[in-house]
Fold each of these.
Amino acid sequence: MAEELLLHACCAVCMAYPIQKLTESGYDVTVFFCNSNIAPLSEYERRRDELEKYCEKMGYKYMIDEYNPSDWLDFIKGYENEPEKGRRCNLCFKYRLEKTVKKALELGIKNFSTTLTVSPHKVSREIFKEADSLVHYGVNFVREDFKKQDGFLKTMQLAKENDFYRQTYCGCSFSIR
């Protein structure tokens, strides 16, 4: 029996290759769409709906977390003016990864990972640092830099083949600038 893994996913585009790779590596993956950072609501809904549609098409298990942008804004308070790839982004990673770990615990899943590392716009070592800070919960972080070995190219090819909606900014209102 395959080990279960809860995969934090930010969108269908970024999820397409990582879920394929993790499944091929022998994990029984459940996708967790946890993105209260995404603004406005219409953008959140568009990304959520695209991910749901793809998961259903492919037969992937998935869960959608509650959308609570005020909770996310409270978490990053004081860092709104940070540049992209700054402390606000690290806090955003921590917020979503911690929620993923807590959901994994609730579900009895012992492993988690994230699709965030597939993006060339994200610093994987910062994502790993935030994930590693959560080991005290007792959930194993499956460390994959999905952009390596043409991972970003592969996820872009899958996005094109599936005619995914491709956003023009990371997600939060501060990244629109």
Amino acid sequence: MLAWGPSFARADDAACISAHVEAQRLEKAGKARAARDALVTCAKPECPAVLVTECSTMLVEIEGSIPTVVLSAKTADGADVGDVEVREGERVMASRLDGKALEVDPGEHTFRFTRGGAEQAVTVIVLAGDKNRAISVTFGGPAKAVGPASSGERAISPGFWVSGAVGLAGLALFAGLGGAGLAKKGELDERACRPDCDSADVDEVRGLFLGADIALGVGLAGLAVAPIFYFTSPVRGGDARGGLSLGLAPTALTLEGTF
């Protein structure tokens, strides 16, 4: 027994030294959890006292630096679900979500949540010392109902109503100003005063025609923009398709009078 004692001691010392060296290598490589396991080995009482002290100190420090995450999943209506498997690469992080914190190494992680054939992936960068970081995904809601909810009705953008109202108001103003201008011009024609009509009357007619032209341009522009808002509005209960650009090229309509 006495003859074997030194040999066992040397073997234990070698394992302790090897664990200490490996712990430092793993820590530098960002593998905090594996480094902790190595430090547990070299902090055992049978190791040399100097290693026990150093490994124990390092163990406390690295324990505090190991991040933890809390994984969760919800349905589209906000209900928590637990029947979810989470993997990172080939590692199964959780076969079912239970709200418990899970240890990970610092760095970038891609977690893949799987539920009933559906999968959601989340990539995050976890910082050293980050504790109980919440990572959650939302799975699609219940199957779509058959009926009006999935009829493809558009959720019309407010821009459609605004531009349409501006377009109609512009055309109405064009009609009003244009009508007033034509009536005033008719009065001047009855007077047969050209080319010596009163300048104030002439300016009034020109102003009415100019206002009518501006109102027409605004009205046509509003009506041209309204279809764009309509066809780019999302469809309720269906997929939002790519926006369809639809415009109307306004024709230059003007009211003119010669005096």
Amino acid sequence: MKTGIIGLGLIGGSMALALRNIPNNKIYGNDKYNFEKALSLGLISDKLTDEIIPEMDLIILATPVNTLPQLALNILDKIKPETLVFDVGSTKHKLAKAIENHTNRHNFVLAHPIAGTEYSGPEAAFPGLFTRKMNIVCDTEKTKPEILQKALKIFDTLQMKTIEMNSNEHDRHIAYVSHLSHISSFMLGKTVLDLEKDEKNIFRMAGSGFASTVRLAKSSPATWTPIFLENKEPILQALDEYLDNLNDFKAMLYRENHQKIKETLTQINYIGKIIDDIS
């Protein structure tokens, strides 16, 4: 088996490490910035070039989401009939539209492994990143059944829990539960940096609550800027609701409405049960 991975950061690099466990699977890779580092770390065995793309049995696209539509079209132009191609991007609808009329659309699986850390680059990759993580595949009716089954087998090898969803619905829901949390973390970090001019005070006084809440602010801007822009409309809707809630809380605090604050926080506690049930 020959696997090609384009994009060798945290996600692509971790895919490479995890898929090395498949017997007789040679991993090829390419990355404009990270190729040499990924090769030196042993994530891949050789370089994926345009000339050998037709030899690949599996191709994984793990580049920033704004690059995926054109990249996917270029790859679909070159593959053999039985090749599986899937992406790992955090947005889906624009990619789905870009490839919908390609003659090899049925070789493509729109996939989103909901896995990651606040770290980036090939140095951050590790093989267990996807273990017991949720994976969303979209618009599967447009993929050949045998290609889809091949993808599901790969996802099982990675020990992910896979569900299906429409690409539009995916982008809307992921704006609420992933993209908004990253924006909140970035903006919390910005607020503290704006207010607290002495960095030593941040170091001395920041407790575990602050550290866990702002952890995502360490995420790669090169990854997250295109995600925010690609999923602009659902994110703007989510931000409107979020800002309304912040303003409501601000008003309660201003009026020192003890009972209302307590009731609101008690209602919100329910989300903890949902998270506990998931995990």
